[in-house]
Design goal:
- By secondary structure, this protein is mainly α.
- The chain has helices spanning 7-14, 19-31, 35-56, 71-80, 87-105, 121-133, 137-157, 162-165, 171-185, 190-203, 220-239, 248-261.
- The longest helix has 22 residues, at 35-56.
- It is globular and about 50 Å long.
- The model has no long low-confidence stretch (mean pLDDT 97).
Length: 282
C-alpha cells in the first residue's frame, strides 16, 4: 500500500507503469472496489469538469458581484481568431481554465482540483490535450489519477489550502498535478512527471492568497490562466529531457516552509496583496 507522502515513493512504485496506474490500483484496494468501478467514478468527475468548462464559456455568464463572467468567452474568441501570441494549445488551455474558474465564481458545479479556487487548471490542461492530441476519455481518466496521486503527496507533505499556504498551495499544487498528468499523457516516464512537479512548484514559490473582497474571483480566476500555462511549460521541459535541479519532495517541503512563514494578511484573509489595493477599498 502506498503511503502517499512522497513523489519518490510514487516514482519507485510505478516502475515501468504510470503513476496513474499505480494510484488507481492502490486506491481501489484501499476502498475495496474494482479498478473499473473507481475509474467510472473518476469518469464522472471528468464529466463535471467538461460541463464546468462548457458553462463557463457562456458569454452571458456573470457572477453576483459582477467581477467575473464572460471573460473566458472573450479569450476563446480571440484564440480562435488568431489574435493571441501563445498559439492554439496554450490559448485553448487558458480559455478552458478560465471558463471553469468563472463557472465556480458564478456558483456553478465544478470539481475542486485540488480546490475550488484552482479548479480550472487540471481540466484546462487535460481537455486541451484531448482536443489537440486526440486522447480518449480513458487516457484522461488515468491522467486524473496521476494528478490525484501528486495532489495527495502535496497535501500530506505541505498543504493545498490558501488559508494555510497561500496561492502557491492552491494554483501551484494544481499546476503541479496538471503538469505530471500531461507528462504521462505525452508518454513521459514517472521520473519525468516528478521533474514537472518540481518545476511547477518552483515557478510559483511564495505566491500569496489575496482574494479581493474575500471572494474567489480576483485574482483567482486569472491565476488559473497563469497556472495552466505553468503546467504546460513545466510538462514540456520535463518531456524534452530537462531535469529539475531539486527533487520534487524537497520543493514541496520548501513550499510548506514558505507558506508557514507567510503573514496572515497573505493567506486568504483579504487583507494584503491585491486585496489591499486602493481601488478595492472604494
Amino acid at each position: 500500500m502506498l503511503q502517499g507522502d512522497s513523489m519518490m515513493e510514487l516514482i519507485a512504485f510505478a516502475g515501468q507503469q504510470s503513476i496513474g496506474q499505480i494510484v488507481l490500483k492502490d486506491q481501489a484496494d484501499q476502498d475495496g472496489v474494482t479498478v473499473e468501478a473507481l475509474s467510472e467514478r473518476m469518469g464522472q468527475a471528468l464529466s463535471v469538469m467538461r460541463q464546468s468548462v462548457e458553462e463557463g464559456l457562456n458569454p452571458a455568464l456573470r457572477s453576483v458581484s459582477g467581477m467575473s463572467g464572460g471573460q473566458a468567452a472573450k479569450l476563446l474568441s480571440g484564440v480562435q481568431a488568431g489574435q493571441t501570441m501563445g498559439g492554439l494549445s496554450m490559448g485553448l488551455a487558458a480559455a478552458y481554465a478560465m471558463a471553469a474558474a468563472e463557472c465556480n465564481a458564478c456558483m456553478g458545479k465544478i470539481v475542486a482540483a485540488p480546490t475550488a479556487g484552482s479548479c480550472g487548471i487540471v481540466p484546462g490542461a487535460l481537455l486541451m490535450a484531448q482536443r489537440q492530441k486526440g486522447y480518449g476519455d480513458g487516457q484522461l481518466i488515468e491522467a486524473l489519477f496521476t494528478a490525484a496521486g501528486v495532489g495527495r503527496v502535496i497535501a500530506t507533505r505541505a498543504s493545498v489550502a490558501g488559508a494555510e499556504g497561500g496561492c502557491q498551495a492552491e494554483c501551484g499544487s494544481a499546476a503541479a498535478m496538471a503538469a505530471a498528468a500531461l507528462v504521462e499523457l505525452g508518454g513521459g516516464s514517472p521520473r519525468m512527471a516528478g521533474h514537472a512537479v518540481g518545476f511547477a512548484l518552483m515557478n510559483v514559490m511564495g505566491l500569496v492568497c489575496d482574494p479581493v473582497g474575500g471572494l474567489v474571483e480576483v485574482p483567482c480566476v486569472y491565476r488559473n490562466v497563469s497556472g495552466v500555462a505553468n503546467a504546460l511549460c513545466s510538462a514540456d521541459m520535463a518531456l524534452c529531457g530537462i531535469e529539475c535541479p531539486l527533487p520534487a519532495d524537497e520543493v514541496i517541503d520548501a513550499m510548506k516552509r514558505v507558506g508557514d512563514a507567510m503573514p496572515s494578511s497573505l493567506r486568504e484573509t483579504g487583507e494584503g496583496g491585491c486585496a489591499a489595493c486602493a481601488s478595492c477599498k472604494r
